[in-house]
Specification:
With 180 residues, the chain is of the alpha+beta class. The protein contains seven helices and eight strands; from the N terminus they run E-H-E-E-H-E-H-H-E-H-E-E-H-E-H. It is globular and about 45 Å long.
Length: 180
């Protein structure tokens, strides 16, 4: 049975608090198996019969909206896709290892077009390097997140797509868990 990871936006942010055990049960009630949550920021690992991630995203979003009473944007990747994302290395090791630098991965609803990628790259600065690959944006932040001048709203505006952000170390830990 195919394995997936759902990255949920705005879970346990902005007053939308949901414990991970009830979230896990909600996914099981949707008919998914092997459901696990990974840290309390809306990362859900699961198995499903379907191979259509777009349909899975719509199913999860509709179910969560019905049960929680608010919209939860959902970004699903297969275990194989996540392994590739976690291994993708668009920046130099010396840049990644610089003190104060953090790599983030932005999961977008779809691949941005050329114009959107150009808008995104125009946001880059010495403190913020950006690289687009498929549906993901790799963001090397050379300062604290709060001092970066970036926000999810700014990134979504440039992309023209809904998105969510995860620390690359979290993504790598999830990928490692699923590929062992």
């Amino acid at each position: 049975m195919p394995k997936y990871v759902a990255f949920l936006r705005a879970i346990n942010l902005g007053g939308h608090t949901l414990k991970m055990e009830p979230l896990r049960r909600l996914f099981e009630e949707m008919g998914f198996s092997g459901v696990e949550t990974f840290i309390a920021s809306g990362n859900v690992l699961f198995e499903a019969d379907s191979t259509n991630t777009w349909e899975l995203e719509r199913k999860v979003e509709a179910s969560l909206h019905d049960r929680l009473g608010f919209s939860v944007a959902t970004f699903i990747r297969t275990a194989d896709e996540l392994a590739e994302i976690a291994c993708y290395d668009p920046f130099k090791a010396t840049d990644l290892d610089s003190e104060g630098s953090t790599l983030y991965i932005v999961f977008a609803a779809g691949p941005p077009g050329d114009q959107e990628v150009q808008k995104l790259l125009e946001l880059a600065s010495d403190a913020n390097q950006l690289h687009a690959s498929g549906r993901e944006i790799y963001w090397l932040c050379r300062t604290s997140f709060s001092d970066s001048g970036f926000s999810l709203a700014l990134l979504e505006k440039a992309l023209g797509l809904p998105a969510t952000i995860r620390n690359a170390s979290t993504v790598k830990r999830i990928a490692k868990k699923y590929t062992l």
